[in-house]
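Quick one - inputs below.
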Amino acid sequence: MTKYGMVIDLSRCVGCQSCAVACKEENNEPLGIWWNRVLTVGGGEHIDVPEGEYPDLSMHYLPLACQHCEDAPCVKVCPVSATYKRKEDGVVLVDFNRCIGCRYCMAACPYGVRNFNWGEPVYAPGVDFPVGHQGDHYDKYNPDRLVYTPKRPKGVVEKCTFCVQRIDNGEVPFCVEVCPVGARVFGDLDDPNSEVSSIIRNGNAEQLLPELGTNPQVYYVPPYQKKDIIPPFANQSSVNANESVIAPEASILEQAEQNGYVPGFVLPEKKKGD
Amino acid sequence: MVNETGFLLPKVSRRTFLKLIGAAGMATAVYSALGSGTLRALTQSSSQPANPSVVKIRTAHVNNCDGSCGLLATVYNGTIIKFSPATFNDPDFPPRICLRGLSQVTYEYHADRLKYPMVQVGGRGSGKWQQISWDDATSLIAQKFQEIAAKYGSKAIYIAPYTGNLSVINGLIGVGYRFASVIGASAGDFEGDNEGDSASPAGAVEELGAFDGHELNDLLNSNMIVLWGNNLAETDIPDMRFVLDARDNGAKVVYIDPRYTPTAAVVDLWVPLRPGTDGALALGMMNVIINEGLYNSKYVLNYTVGPFLVNQKNMLFLREKEVVPNGSGKYMVYDTITGSIVPFDTPNISPALTGNYQTNNGIPVKTAFQMLTELVNQYPPSTVESITGVPADTVKVLAEEFAKANPAAIKAGFGGISHWYYGDLTYRALITLSALCGYIGVHGGGVTTYNGALLDAAIDLTDWLTPDGKQYNYIPPLSFADEVFKGNIKAAWFPLDNFINQQGDANKTIKAIQQLDFVVVSDVFMTPTAQYADVLLPMATQYEKEDLLLGGNFFLQYVPKIVEPLWDSKSDLEIFSMVAEKMGYGSYFNGTAEDYIKLVLSGLPSGTTLDDIKANGGVMRLKEEDFATASYQPITKPYVPFYQQNFPTPSGRIEFYVESVVPYYGTGLPIYKEPYEASPSNPLYTKYPFVLITSHTRFRTHTQWDNLAWLLEINPRQFVEINPLDAVKKGIKDGDRVKIYNDRGYFETVARVTPGVRPGVLNVYQGHWQDFPKGTVNMVTSQAINPAQSVVYLFQSNTPYFDVLVDIEKVSD
Amino acid sequence: MEKGVLGRVDNKIFYAIVAVLSTIVIVGAIAWALEIEYGLILTNMRNVVSWGLYISTFAWFVGVSAGGLILSSSAAVFKIESWKPVSKVASFVSAVVIAAAALIILPDLGRPDRILNLIIYAHLFSPLIWDFSIITTYFIISTLELGLLISADMLKKAGNEKAAKKREHYAVGLAFVALPVAIFTHSITAWIFGLQIARPWWNTALLAPAFVASALVSGLALVLLVLQVNSKLKLVELKLDDKTKALFSKLLLVFILVDMYLLFSEYLTITWPGVPSELAGLYTMFFGPYWYIGWGQWILAFSAVAILAKPGWRTSSKAITAASVLALIEVFFYRLNLVIPGFVHPLIDYPPGMPIGGGVSTSYALSGYSFQIIGQYFPSPIEWEITAGFIAGVALVILLGLKYLPLGSSE
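Output:
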């Protein structure tokens, strides 16, 4: 049996958001819907903001989409089995024709990766045609299930499908293809020779929220462990970077004169180009 | 399976089931009450037209980004519906793309695209436009240009193509210059001064003889990589892959930047420092390397001007003729064997690397290396610590690691190094550091800011840009405003050049533009520059016009016309041709884009033609003989400049002592100077105590992509990064509206309080134009030109975007 | 005192109330029509807080309804004769409210046109299907119970004692089924929430008992309120002695105290260890944007307790009305306090947060609202209108039923 899985290398992810935008393009996601997003694990409420105090800072990124859990809570709660896990390769899919929009699966998903079409979809201004994959796609193994359509119906749930319309044709998910730094690997977890299997076997990959028992098929290589080049900043520099430099630093000019070199600034009157 | 089939009526389809109960009016009444969604659901099937045409066409992204990605456009029934990464047909160069390339569909079909030519009837900036025909528009331009040429001379017309498009026909080295040459107008340059990107090149030309760079997959050969002022993970994402591969192979990666950025998150060591003090850090590292004897003395002796003697009276190299009557202009060295001063190419000598000497006729001299040593001795780690904020221990270890890495590469950023008044000196310090260790011209070493075919392809632009010997009058963009004020420029044309938004000192620029008699802008959107046009022309996007890209990698990439220009837009070639025709110069514009691409390629030594490139899938790696540097060095793969140590400098060696700048700096050494404006030693600092840097975001390429929906969803607004300590002192909270100002002007934005920016420093990502003029960062930057750069023909001026002092205050709503 | 099916009562107040309620119902219907046309984008629910007022009201309705039937079946099962007079009213109220509960799901569905999928493709493992099944069963039982009681009455009136006794016998038998069904109805409704590991605020075994306890509170409160309204408007004659009335009040007090005890146990279990992901819900409830609902629930509960604690007040109609209203609102707040804080802090809450969902306007999506780290939700006018429509509808049907159906105590 195939069991599709993904390994995302957080030691390489630089939070560029290319995979999020790729998914958006491939799957014609309306404004407000992001199947795949790249989170900043740092401090504060904005992307790219590290945690700590300058200069003792740290940050890493976390791309997050459907984990295609082995024991998926969303599959368990769907009252009409519109969300289902196909046994042939373990991909969790939503049938656009069957979903009644009760959003129970959204309440059940611990990762918050499901999106809802609250109203008629709205797209980028001027783009009044579907982008990405054209045409509907039915589940290769269950052909009565509409698992992708660029024309989103309002009132149904949607989420990452591992690009079912691509993997059913032997391609990899689009996010894997585009990652500019090569942080994503996709493959068969049941195949011991696949790259994903060997990374996981090396003990170097973890799942998100493992204590919940969902057993995701998406694994993460932990953030980068730095090589020791110099000892950590044990002593602060004499120009205290941790203090706001609002008061003028006369000391710099003094030291410059002491050391016998000419400081760089030229008196305003003599500057050229003013 | 229970999961997947109906439980009550497993074999009955929905249609049948509904038929069963459909007889009862109740069902239909219920369904109609609930809306027609059911019928839609029932009849929903593949709404695909029969036999759609689907083609995949390879193109390249011509925007001003070092990535120069190959894009594969999927065209479905005549509409581009997807962009994906395209192959380069090269196993060492994987396909590449980023969030901007992936958003191009939202650009190509953007609702806000300019649709037809317009004249601004209410005066510049009024926003009152009237549509006119192309015929009328081009006639008007031709007429106005002719009037101005008759009254003031044709040089009073300024054509300013720029980096909106890096390609050969419609872009940076394109038809705008041809037009300017043909009609005898003035034109700017394309060497980056209007971006702050010419200080580093100036320094490189001074010290190495050329501005060139290693092919970036050469980083895989490095044992240590220093990303110096280069937020590579955000500004050139695909090339970060090579850094990460090297890192995972054991290379140590160091990143020097006042900010903690995405790059800092994935490297081994982030070295924060005071903005603009990178030169001092480099000198400090050289101090350690020289004093601990870690430098490659043999290399310095043989390939740099280290042993050359410098006349201490005039600070120029000692020449033979100064000590020997009727002597040559040869450089002189001190031969330790004979104890005499002799020409450097004297056989069987052992030149001294250090020392103070005197010529027979009493001229005190020192070796250049001696002078360098004395310079760096003023920068012991403790001094460097007080200047830069980098702890002395770090300076020491960094230097030792760098010297021992063998080799170590420096990948420098345009922003962090070149956007400063003294960027030339800083870049030279980096080169000197690398040279001391013998890393120039070796695989895995070097100092690289930019690389690729744009720098190195041996194309001959003479016939394309200056046909029949006609040559435009060169006025660097940084001199534009002053030339207007002097009355030398009366009209301007900005093709895909968001000049007003991006030039330093926006107020000065606007003032200059307002003094012009006539302004033409051709663009894709109503940018701030477009808002000041008298005539505004809709420009076709790169996907609508045929072109060729020589970009930030060594591949010639064909840029085909994928779809017809939307609305009534036209390509640059077409627009300039139309105007030229009406001005009587049509004979110079009779060719198609293909003709001119072939003209440009015709100079290639290998004889590669456009058809060859097309036959190879639209992409072809530059052949060895087609490198401009092939004339003086072997070409390797990955490409390494100065391979085998051939330097096109006056001395043929690495000139860490540059004679040509002595009149400006009093010395030829890569001294350290405090930033021109953004220094605490500047009296202005008491009034404006913040350094404002304006770095490059991944959500835009300069001003392009500022209005793309998908990118705006993640990055909706401009903001200023301010450290929490400063925010507290200024009473500013995250999300507050703030005003940033100095004597040149002001702009408003929203505060983002983050510990990732150094205290005393503010960062605003440049390129945002949608909030013009209140949100334009260049209201506070300057147009200060460093006269020392005038010695480099190609890179005479540089906008010091980062060299800015400001203050910030909260704006009450 | 006139009564029942064919009697006419000149009661201006009654018709005035009917008119007001009908207006609200009509407004709600229009709102619902708009919602069907434009979709749930007219609500303020978005991806982060994806259930709101409708589901809270649904859970409230189920609880209110369960209480009614528990009351009437207890009368039969435990042979409490003094309660029997209110059995019909209780069953009727129960049936009406559970119908409303089932129906209020419809405005919450993205695709109400596909409602039949619940039958065609029912997924037996899903708590929603359990709830759907048990609510249907419950509705049938309530209606059947009511029907049996009414027909028993009518047969008695017609003189057919034997048939009437048979009907009563069936009614008692049904009551034995109804009681566990009623308890399970609200337990299953609780399990919809309580089984979800993604929502620590919901994920407690105490949720089902707490729901049952609050069902008893709200159900009894509604019956008491209906009785008060009934006697004020003189619609149906119910022979209830003071002792029973006092007992009901005492029961209400006990139910509230039990409910408070269960909730207290829950809060202690969260705060004492202080696990952040679990504290988030409690924190949101008491100190988040709707802190007034959080504290309000307890203020209302304590107020109701204070009123009912005074023995002298337990038979005062003013006190009973006040306590019932307070109890009903308190349980409504409880449902809100459960549903919404469960969504406000997703387990993974790093910036930029969760996307907001499709259907938002372009300008909204592009001005920085496309993502939310913490859920923001306050019901939109459409949600208020539809919910008010349902509540008014329930009140309307109950009033009309009291007036026109033979719900009085049998002679």
